[in-house]
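Per reviewer request, we include the raw input and output of the structure prediction for the construct analysed in the revised manuscript.
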Amino acid sequence: MAGRLENGREWVARAWHTSGHERQTVLRIGKSGLAATLSWWVAHDLVHAGSPAFAPFSAVLTMNVTIHRSLWQTLRYVAAVVVGVAVQAAIGFAAGPDLFAFVVVALIALTLSQSPALGDQGPQVATAAFFAFSVYSTATTNVDRAMQLGQIVLLVLIGCGIGLLVNLVVAPPLRYRSAEEGLRVLAAEMETLLDDMADGLRSGDVGDERAERWRAAGERGQAAVDQARIGLRTAENSLPFNPRRLLPAHRHHLAFDRYRQVLGALERAVYQLASLTRSLGRWRETENTYTYAPAFEAYSDFALRLRDIAHVVAEIDSDTLTAQAEEMSEQAAVAQKALQAVLDAAREHRLPLADASRPYGVLVVEATRLMEEFQHTCDVLRDTADA
């Protein structure tokens, strides 16, 4: 019990002091509660609706991670409700509120709910049709039935309108940090892999266990690429219709083209690391012909230099990007020298770079490609900081 209380206090502290997931959760709950309360008040106290719950339900449904997505989902939701109510109205007024009519309404609504145009809101067609049938069956005259069906649409519009207004006015979500977070997670995975690779090359341990660990790290890196892309899209989608983007404090966060370039470079580096680890994993024989230890040692040092760059990217922050970009540029210069040491060692000891059964050629080629991508990452972030 004490542990749970301590975890709860830590969670509240993070929500209060940092702009992270915890604070976003608190804001979303608070805004949803406010929108639901206002919608209930309008529907119950002002409109005197018979089923006021439609309004707060619709208001909460409009709350989303971005204004752009909220608006898009709201339009789809309203369309789904209108279609569902229209289906019920057409069948109900033609066949009456009996079981056969319900079967027809259900089949038609469930079929229309599969429309790709409605996206995630497709099931709301059937939901609206079922609620409409319930309201329709309790009314006594056609005029009352028509008014009840129209009231459902009115309540949905009230709830959606209030929900959008609250989401727009009260701390509208501007998720530019999502782009940074995705890059940080991806760079952290690469940092771990490069560090372990450097240790394996330095010690000569490229056996099955180490190779499996590298393979798992590569898979995590590829998964992190997908998450980084989602974070970048979230950041971009948080800008349209968001009034906070006009504030001076946020204007320098609103360009994501360079983040996309960095993500592309890191993604290519992830696949090159995966190719490299597969090559090392296939190399099992003890080498008795060539002196490879100096080359592997040089490559180990090169991997450590790349790890240092990944470490800075793993802590990227737009507020301190200028200093970080300068640090990465310095580390890139050191990594270039380490790459030259790899090439010199391979040339000095006449390693068979063209022999596919040995990893030397792949090591040299991938080292060059990795350096290009990491250098590109450093250059892009430096240009971003200068801008």
